[in-house]
């Protein structure tokens, strides 16, 4: 059960990282200039999450979970990404992800 949850969390890491990377392309240069440091940190966190998600899923699939605390560590790591993203939204003065706007436009 812990292994299944760990693989699920690893998949969430990959999705969160890839969404963060694609979201970076949607911000205007004016938005990025409002918060250059937070924007770079968000980019680095997105890259790290994608890499960690893939590595974690491969590790758990091949070797099992290293400790029963592993799923908890993954869940706490997700909190870091949420904090960075929220900080970036506030710094750029946007209420939500520009990715959401694109999805809503395509659904209409």
Q: Features of this protein?
A:
108 residues, transmembrane, mainly alpha, transmembrane helix, membrane
Describe the 3D structure.
It contains five helices and no strands. It is mostly helical. The radius of gyration is 16 Å and the shape is elongated. The mean pLDDT is 89.
- Number of E-type strands: 0
C-alpha-based Rg, rounded: 16 Å
Into which percentage range does the β-strand content fall?
under 5%
- The count of helical stretches stands at 5
The biggest sheet, with number of strands, parallel, antiparallel or mixed sense and barrel status, is:
none
List the secondary-structure elements in sequence, H or E: HHHHH
What percent of the residues sit in helical stretches (DSSP H or I)? over 70%
Broad shape:
elongated
Q: Please state the structural category.
A: mainly alpha
Number of domains: 1
Give the overall pLDDT as a whole number. 89
The end-to-end distance, rounded to whole angstroms, is: 40 Å
Low-confidence stretches: none
Keywords: Membrane, Transmembrane, Transmembrane helix
Transmembrane segments: 6-22, 43-61, 67-84
Protein name: DUF2306 domain-containing protein
């Amino acid at each position: 059960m812990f292994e299944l949850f760990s693989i699920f969390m690893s998949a969430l890491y990959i999705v969160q990282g890839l969404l963060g990377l694609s979201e970076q392309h949607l911000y205007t240069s004016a938005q990025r200039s409002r918060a250059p440091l937070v924007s770079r940190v968000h980019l680095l966190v997105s890259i790290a999450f994608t890499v960690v998600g893939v590595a974690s899923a491969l590790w758990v699939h091949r070797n099992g979970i290293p400790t029963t605390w592993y799923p908890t560590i993954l869940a706490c790591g997700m909190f870091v990404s949420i904090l960075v993203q929220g900080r970036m939204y506030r710094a750029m003065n946007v209420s939500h992800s520009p990715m959401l706007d694109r999805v809503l436009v395509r659904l209409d």
